Amino acid sequence: MSADRRIEAITKRIVERSKPTREPYLERVRHASTKGVKRGALACGNLAHGFAVCSPGDKAALAGDTVPNLGIITAYNDMLSAHQPFEHFPDLIRKAAAEVGGVAQVAGGVPAMCDGVTQGQPGMELSLFSRDIIAMAAGIGLSHNMFDAAVFLGVCDKIVPGLMIAALTFGHLPSVFVPAGPMTTGLPNDEKNRIRQLYAEGKVGRAELLEAESKSYHGPGTCTFYGTANSNQMLMEIMGFHMPGASFVNPGTPLRDALTREATKRALAITALGNEFTPAGEMIDERSIVNGVVGLHATGGSTNHTMHLIAMARAGGIQLTWQDISDLSDIVPLLARVYPNGSADVNHFHAAGGMGFLIKQLLKAGFVHDDVRTVFGQGLAAYTIEPHLNEDGTVLRQPSPEQSADPKVLSQIEAPFQANGGLKMLTGNMGKAVIKISAVKPERHIVEAPAVVFHTQQALLDAFKDGKLNRDFVAVVRFQGPKANGMPELHKLTPSLGVLQDRGFKVALITDGRMSGASGKVPAAIHVTPEAVDGGPIAKIKDGDMIRLDAVAGTLEVLMDASEFAARPAIVIDLSDNEFGMGRELFAPLRRLAGPADQGASVLF
């Protein structure tokens, strides 16, 4: 299947732009790809340390040069629902490896923090940088050079991007990502959002709010709304890092375990010791990255990936830009309605046809590249399936149906929910920003109103509670960028802004911070670059300045004389309150080194 000519054109320009970095990267990957087992480069003392605690049988196997060793990088912890299921995965992986004559060892653990727990709290200021810490932690685990392939156990917001950066940094190794799956459906997401807004209005108390939240987030697995965590799973599948159909199978089920066993055996089958060597750095290329961006648009995915995908691509020497992402959004239609873009959750999405149906529709229109490499060993068409369980406990794959089981959740390519992906870049005299409009009603795509400036999200919430925001306004929440305070998510603002919008006011948000995959019905220009702490134009805005956010034209402007605005000094504020507490002092070097949002907001690239 050939790709749409517009998709091909964008892919080709990414290829050309990337040549100065992609070609040296591939040279390094090929130089590191050696025949025989990787541990063959270790001296006897090195090797003895590496298998000291193994069983006699595994020691004998690892002492030779014919048995592959699989490194497990795990984000397990038992506080977070998405990662708790990973507790038992290493045992499952070791047994599956032994069945095909291999060995598996936990190479290392990586931190996994939850933005849901830290939302609106000081700890959120560590969140974005945890992605790069995760990449480095995974790198430490793999640096022992004991492994011929790796499996990565991770799910949530910064974990998967960090793990993918590590996988591409160790691009000479085959890598398979193994998800845990979403928790079963709890309280409907629209009902949870209703209770949040009632709480913001003071109409229900904390007890009612906690009850609703607990019914929503109630057991093992990923949160069921379509935020960054579930966008991650979609990306890993459409980019070929998952086994087909693996993304959205619930944890603790026989099918989930079968997919994990299968992923283990496949990882061992694609090492340099076999005939299907698939190093991650060569498998993932510009076409894979474009497929990921297309999937993000077609599903209304997380705004966080306007940074993560750029950083992930750079780890493989690929130069992706916001302009690429925005241009692809103009081409690719929205095919999924999953909260916050609709009332359904990811379990409903999976039941409606899930990833197999989605990929089939995108291939039909030429919106994704089929001629890519995947861990499954075939092109993307092999992912147009539904996973089931065989009687013998193995995975059975059946062709994805031609019709969606629920057209209100997952649509045919001929009848999309909207003509574009809804993730756009904005430019103007305030700099560059991104906006997600897939959940914003068309009549709210343009907002022109006076600015009300805040330097903390708490200041906005206090103004709301004091009744000072009952009017048309554009909230400018600045000094929330990577260098200022680590770029926390400002999702805590959503209920209050939603209440004001529901009261009939024209409301919008402009910030150099983040809003995450939960960006919803209020138009929000986020990731504003340059950020305020770098003296960006957002630091010049004053209360009362007329702001025009136009998601149709793709512009973000302060409506005043250009020379007057240019001459206005950028405000500087004291950020010392963000420097200590909850570990923030440990991240001071990262804040100083952080790159801009449009380049991935990374300390690594």
UniProtKB/TrEMBL annotation:
- Residues annotated for [4Fe-4S] cluster binding in this entry: 156, 223
Enzyme Commission identifier(s): 4.2.1.12
The annotated pathway is:
Carbohydrate metabolism; Entner-Doudoroff pathway
| Top-level taxonomic group | Bacteria
Q: What UniProt keywords apply to this chain's record, in alphabetical order?
A: 4Fe-4S, Carbohydrate metabolism, Gluconate utilization, Iron, Iron-sulfur, Lyase, Metal-binding
For this chain's record, the cofactor binding note is: Binds 1 [4Fe-4S] cluster.
Query: Which reactions appear under catalytic activity for this entry?
Result: 6-phospho-D-gluconate = 2-dehydro-3-deoxy-6-phospho-D-gluconate + H2O
Question: Which cofactors are required for activity?
Answer: [4Fe-4S] cluster
Any idea which GO molecular function terms this record carries?
4 iron, 4 sulfur cluster binding; metal ion binding; phosphogluconate dehydratase activity
Q: Where does the Dihydroxy-acid/6-phosphogluconate dehydratase C-terminal domain start and stop, copy by copy? A: 408-601
List the GO cellular component terms. Answer: cytosol
Q: What is the uppermost EC class here? A: lyase
Q: Which GO terms describe its biological process?
A: D-gluconate metabolic process; Entner-Doudoroff pathway through 6-phosphogluconate
Q: Where is the Dihydroxy-acid/6-phosphogluconate dehydratase N-terminal domain?
A: 68-381
Q: What does this protein do?
A: Catalyzes the dehydration of 6-phospho-D-gluconate to 2-dehydro-3-deoxy-6-phospho-D-gluconate.
The record ties this protein, via HAMAP family, to: Edd
Q: Which family is this sequence assigned to?
A: Belongs to the IlvD/Edd family.
Protein name in the entry? Phosphogluconate dehydratase
**Origin species:** Rhizobium oryziradicis
Q: What is the lineage of its organism?
A: Bacteria, Pseudomonadati, Pseudomonadota, Alphaproteobacteria, Hyphomicrobiales
